[in-house]
Design a protein that fits this description.
The chain has one domain: Immunoglobulin-like (Sandwich). Helices cover about 5% and strands about 40% of the residues. The strands form 2 sheets. Strands 1, 3, 4, 6, 7 and 8 form a 6-stranded mixed β-sheet that branches. A two-stranded antiparallel sheet has the order 2-5. The longest helix has 7 residues.
């Protein structure tokens, strides 16, 4: 089973501005609620090369929220996915999600070399 991709609630049309990141003190990444998540499961978020981890402490039907420090993002495309690790060691991975970090929401205002 492949899990739904993470969500970037700050994103507008697939973009997050540096001002939005500064206002929230980071990039908000939401892991959607999944009926297969159980107490004790480990959620491992990979945002670009940085890994964040959090255990599910109780099944409350709420999404798991991570706040990614802005120093781990860059202008241009950024990628995130997560893995759920059950106490038994079984791992299930999500589809990836991409978000574009920009100075403004206007595509023409960004000059970014993504190579």
């Amino acid at each position: 089973m492949v899990l739904s991709p993470p969500i970037f609630p700050q994103a507008i049309r697939g973009r997050i501005t540096t001002a939005q990141i500064a206002e929230a003190n980071g990039i908000i990444v939401e892991i959607p609620v999944n009926s297969s998540f159980s107490e004790g499961d480990l959620i491992r978020l990979q945002f670009n090369a940085r890994i964040y981890e959090r255990f599910i402490s109780e099944e409350d039907g709420q999404p798991v929220i991570f706040l990614v420090a802005d120093v781990f993002s860059h202008l241009g495309n950024n990628t995130a996915y997560y893995t759920v690790v059950e106490p038994s060691g079984r791992e299930t991975r999500s589809l990836p999600a991409k978000v574009f970090i920009s100075i403004t929401l206007e595509a023409d205002d960004d000059v970014v070399n993504t190579h």
